[in-house]
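Table S2 (text version). Query chain:
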Amino acid sequence: KLYVGGLAWEIDDQALQEAFAAFGECEAKVMVDRYSGRSRGFGFVTFTDVEACNTARDAMNGKELQGRTVAVNNARQRTYDTAGG
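Corresponding structure-token output:
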């Protein structure tokens, strides 16, 4: 699973998936604000093949996508702070 940051506001799930499809079978999800419905500027791309995932990460990191340079990294597991406050 890859994290893709710095996305243009116009990029939706389909556009993100199409940008990464050349590297292998994948699914893409752009994160949107729950109140406005607008893109939050980042998303995730999940590949079925680890090699395809690594190749896509190396090839797409720092590339331009619809006028914006994107950062592509391995996605990290989401952690929750349970300390409260």
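Notes on Table S2: Strands lie at 2-5, 26-32, 39-47, 64-65, 68-69, 71-74. The chain is about 20% helix and 35% strand.
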